[in-house]
Design goal:
This is XRE family transcriptional regulator. It comes from Streptomyces sp. SID7499. With 193 residues, the chain is mostly beta strands. It has a single domain (4-192), classed as Immunoglobulin-like (Sandwich). It contains one helix and 13 strands. It has one helix at 4-9; strands at residues 20-31, 37-48, 53-61, 69-76, 78-85, 90-101, 106-115, 124-129, 133-142, 152-156, 164-168, 176-184, 187-192. The strands form three sheets. The protein has a six-stranded mixed β-sheet, with no helix packed on it. The chain has a four-stranded antiparallel β-sheet with strand order 8-13-10-11, with no helix packed on it. It has a three-stranded antiparallel β-sheet with strand order 3-6-5. Strand 1 and strand 2 form a beta hairpin. The protein is globular and about 50 Å long. The two termini are 28 Å apart.
Length: 193
């Protein structure tokens, strides 16, 4: 496939999160006053596909090389490794669950990443999923000084494919937009502004 995730993980890609799978993901993206990405936080509910699962790996990719992670906080789970790969504009997080799961047990992993100001205003946020999710909630909060004139949701069948199912989504009084997708299929799910 030769994706950024595959390049970031190298030999680990072959066994990438085979012990557990995501059931539900909630991403919160914050866009700062300059219009650049300022933070991403994620809550992920995972189910063990086999006994003994005790960790998961997450890869976050950034569009702008200047947008580097400056603070990483894990509120559910324990951060075992964080590696920023500047050439790939990607952050690899290994988060341990704190216990070994029995087959079909669930666990919650939550983390937040603050990002240094980038040079280019953000225009979208995307999540790539290799598996079906029961539910995916994507929220984007905008600083009052960086409100977009228009927002759309879209789906790509794979990284690099053209967007499809593009629909306008309204900005709320809280300066956010959200997309809730039930029975979320594999692919790239995004919001553009």
């Amino acid at each position: 496939e030769d994706s950024v995730v595959e390049k970031a993980l190298g030999a680990r890609f072959r066994h990438f999160n085979q012990e557990s799978s995501s059931l539900m993901v909630h991403d919160i993206v914050k866009v700062g006053e300059s219009g650049t990405l300022s933070a991403i936080s994620t809550t992920n509910v995972l189910r063990a596909s086999r006994a003994g699962a005790d960790r998961a790996i997450f890869v976050l990719s950034f569009d702008d090389e200047a947008a580097e992670p400056v603070d990483i906080r894990v509120s559910c789970g324990r951060l075992a490794e964080a590696t920023y790969l500047k050439g790939l504009k990607s952050l690899v997080l290994e988060i341990h669950f704190g216990r070994e799961l029995a087959k079909l047990d669930t666990t919650v992993v939550s983390y937040a990443v603050e990002v240094s100001p980038s040079e280019t205003p953000a225009t979208h946020y995307e999540r790539w999923s290799r598996t079906n999710l029961h539910e995916y909630l994507q929220q984007v909060f905008f600083h009052p000084g960086a409100l977009p004139s228009d927002c759309h949701r879209y789906v790509r069948e794979k990284v690099g494919a053209p967007p499809r199912a593009r629909r306008r989504i309204p900005l709320s009084e809280s300066h956010d937009v959200h997309v809730l997708t039930s029975r979320c299929k594999p692919g790239v799910h995004g919001v553009a502004w």
